[in-house]
Design goal:
Elements lengths: L3 E2 L4 H5 L2 H20 L12 E3 L5 H7 L6 E6 L4 H16 L5 E6 L4 H6 L7 E6 L2 E7 L4 H19 L24 H12 L3 H14 L4 H16 L4 H10 L4 H13 L3 H14 L2 H18 L4 H14 L1
Parallel strand pairs: 2-4, 3-4
Antiparallel strand pairs: 1-6, 3-5, 5-6
Helix pairs in contact: 7-8, 8-9, 9-11, 9-13, 10-11, 11-12, 11-13, 12-13, 12-14
Length: about 325
């Protein structure tokens, strides 16, 4: 998908003169109240980037937008352009020193928000200023264009709504509050492998989960857990019956998922991925989400850098968006 810039001129239409005046008055009142209490509380640089879900959207985005422009980054784990844009936006949020707040929204976990904002493709970036939403750009836009857009956004926030941003406590950076490095996990990983060799799939799953409980992004444990859980699911399956059920009823999502598990366990990687991509493409609602989530789990079995996974992610994006 080619990046597409979205004009900032829409701000005027989204914020009527009366609404702008009210928002500016509220912001000035909030600053005056804060000044009476010794000024606004400073936030650490780490607080300039937040994860937002549907439950916290009103508190973390709408309410915060009365004091600082909130930039919304709609992303997903499987989206390769998101992996380029996300770190750039995070870096800029810190560099801009509180003049905007970056809120990251995982579309896989927050599909209602995605629908409410009319997201057709990701990455997609919006802003909320004094409760008013506006589109900024879509796709992996060059940094120079992003900076220009952010500068316009900040100017609008200051001039029309009186938003001066957040006060950042630079001394809080590197204060030692960061999570210490986790590990090592040699003993747990060895225990998992021994359990697999002994056919103790439940033991292997638990050993990998023990690692991930302390280090959720540990690559070897993530891969091992995905593989062990796959083996658990196919254990005891009747391959002939599973394949017959899937062939007899293409609309049966659970039958297609079982067949995909069997395909992958048997080394038929592209067949498994293709089956679930097709299932996602012809289903809706909960059925679609169930098939999509299992496909994401199967990606973990093979690994994110495998060309077959990359191709399947692209195919999934096409049927979703």
């Amino acid at each position: 998908m080619q990046p597409r810039n979205m004009s900032m001129s829409g701000v005027v239409d989204l914020a009527a003169v009366k609404a702008a005046g009210e928002a500016k008055a509220k912001a000035e009142q909030a600053r005056a109240e804060a000044a009476r209490h010794g000024g606004p509380a400073a936030v650490p640089p780490s607080a300039l980037v937040i994860d937002v879900d549907e439950a916290g959207f009103e508190r973390d985005v709408l309410q915060r937008s009365a004091e600082v422009p909130v930039v919304l980054d709609f992303w997903a784990e499987w989206c390769e352009p998101c992996k380029q844009l996300g770190p750039l936006l995070e870096r800029l949020a810190v560099e801009y020193d509180g003049r905007f707040l970056l809120a990251k929204i995982d579309v896989d976990a927050n599909q209602m928000l995605m629908q409410q904002f009319g997201i057709q493709g990701i990455p997609a970036v919006f802003a909320v200023v004094a409760g008013q939403a506006l589109p900024l750009f879509q796709g992996a836009v060059p940094e120079a264009q992003i900076r220009e857009t952010l500068d316009q956004l900040i100017h609008v926030g200051e001039e029309r709504f009186g938003l001066t941003g957040l006060t950042v406590d630079r001394d809080a950076a590197g204060s030692g509050s960061e999570r210490p490095a986790a590990g090592p996990y040699d003993a747990l990983l060895e225990a998992a492998m021994s359990a697999l060799d002994a056919g103790d799939l439940a033991g292997a799953v638990q050993a990998y989960k023990n690692v991930l409980a302390d280090d959720p992004e540990h690559p070897e444990a993530k891969l091992g857990l995905a593989q062990a859980e796959l083996l658990q699911r196919v254990q005891g399956m009747d391959p002939q019956a599973v394949r017959k059920n899937a062939a007899d009823d293409p609309a049966d999502v659970e039958a297609q998922i079982a067949a995909a598990d069997l395909d992958l366990a048997g080394g038929h990687v592209q067949d498994a991925f293709g089956r679930l991509v097709e299932t996602v493409g012809r289903t809706f609602g909960d059925d679609r989400n169930t098939a999509r989530l299992r496909l994401l789990e199967l990606f973990e079995v093979i690994g994110p850098e495998d060309p077959r996974v990359i191709a399947a992610r692209q195919a999934l994006a096409r049927v979703l968006f």
